[in-house]
């Protein structure tokens, strides 16, 4: 497929992630077709995208070189799958996180597209070998897992099916880079991918520390937001270690490796997050931020505004 043929991307599903992907791809100058099997939903998605693009432009946070109106003109809505897939070189699926639903939609997609069209899933917890088990040509399949919200948090994990062709990984990496994302390649599939495995480790130890009466919910969040998170926003754990010893990573492990191993062996078992004893942690969190929609929506808006500011800071540096 020549570069002249690689202009149209189809997004399957018009929810939050689908809309975000459409905005990201349009920011890179691609024509984006949004499909939703619920009549009228994809058209409603474009109305929401129009509102968001205008707000981003007003805040000087619009991605890409095109104006909000120019980006909006690249996005179209479809209730018919055949029409939505016509001309696409790349398909980004964003439907419900249910294996059978994803398997079914990819079977439908494969019947309607050519053999070289790349099929990508936004799944956050289903491995490619399961998602694409009913696809005939699995060499063109992969997971492109974004981080919510993808417009501000640019990481995207590229996870191959065991049969995924290297060229498909390369093409997807190039595409994601071109539209301003920060793609990382996993060399093989693993449950939870990379981001969610690291996140799960943080969640588990944070939960244990609160559960064991070592620290409060409020303060464990401060450990991340005012401590680890400050540097992790710009450098990762490997570089952090490399910079925290006079002679780099090997020196760091000579100095602190034994202590790290000692601490790791003191970790307790994986918590039962749904056990009766977990209610006290939930209650403590809800005292800080009540779980009604009004409070949660306000905090999510605050989160997105802060992420927008951080994205701008990272862009400028």
UniProtKB/TrEMBL annotation:
UniProt keyword annotation of Transcription present: no
Pfam families (UniProt xref): 3HCDH, 3HCDH_N
Every 3-hydroxyacyl-CoA dehydrogenase C-terminal domain range: 192-261
Alphabetized UniProt keyword annotations: Oxidoreductase
Any one of the GO BP annotations: fatty acid metabolic process
An MF annotation (GO) of this entry: L-gulonate 3-dehydrogenase activity
Transmembrane regions listed in the UniProt entry: none
Source superkingdom: Eukaryota
UniProt entry tagged with the keyword Magnesium: no
Residue span, 3-hydroxyacyl-CoA dehydrogenase NAD binding domain: 9-188
InterPro entries per record: 3-OHacyl-CoA_DH_CS, 3-OHacyl-CoA_DH_NAD-bd, 3HC_DH_C, 6-PGluconate_DH-like_C_sf, 6PGD_dom2, NAD(P)-bd_dom_sf
PANTHER family registered for this protein in UniProt: 3-HYDROXYACYL-COA DEHYDROGENASE FAMILY PROTEIN, LAMBDA-CRYSTALLIN HOMOLOG
Protein family: Belongs to the 3-hydroxyacyl-CoA dehydrogenase family.
Protein name, per record: Crystallin lambda 1
Biological source species: Stegastes partitus
Gene of this entry: cryl1
């Amino acid at each position: 497929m020549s570069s002249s043929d690689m202009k149209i991307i189809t997004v399957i599903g018009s929810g939050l992630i689908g809309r975000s992907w459409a905005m990201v791809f349009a920011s890179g100058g691609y024509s984006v077709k949004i499909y939703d099997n619920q009549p009228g939903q994809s058209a409603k998605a474009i109305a929401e995208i129009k509102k968001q693009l205008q707000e981003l432009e007003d805040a000087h946070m619009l991605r890409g070189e095109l104006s909000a109106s120019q980006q909006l003109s690249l996005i179209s809505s479809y209730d018919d799958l055949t029409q939505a897939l016509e001309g696409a070189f790349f398909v980004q699926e964003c439907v419900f996180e249910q294996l059978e639903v994803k398997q079914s939609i990819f079977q439908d997609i494969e019947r309607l597209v050519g053999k070289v069209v790349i099929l990508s899933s936004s799944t956050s917890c289903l491995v490619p070998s399961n998602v694409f088990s009913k696809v005939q040509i699995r060499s063109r399949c992969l997971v492109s897992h974004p981080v919510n919200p993808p417009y501000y948090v640019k990481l995207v994990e590229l996870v191959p099916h065991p049969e995924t062709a290297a060229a498909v990984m390369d093409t997807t990496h190039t595409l994601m880079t071109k539209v301003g994302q920060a793609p990382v390649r996993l060399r093989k599939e693993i449950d939870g991918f990379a981001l969610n495995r690291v996140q799960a480790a943080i969640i588990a130890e944070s939960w244990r520390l609160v559960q064991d009466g070592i620290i409060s919910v409020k303060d464990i969040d401060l450990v991340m937001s005012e401590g680890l998170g400050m540097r992790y926003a710009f450098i990762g754990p490997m570089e952090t270690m490399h910079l925290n010893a006079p002679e780099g990573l090997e020196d760091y492990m000579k100095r602190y490796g034994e202590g790290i191993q000692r601490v790791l062996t003191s970790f307790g078992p994986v918590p039962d997050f749904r056990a009766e004893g977990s209610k006290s942690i939930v209650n403590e969190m809800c005292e800080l931020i009540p779980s009604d929609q009004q409070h949660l929506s306000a905090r999510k808006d605050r989160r997105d505004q802060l992420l927008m500011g951080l994205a701008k800071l990272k862009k400028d540096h």
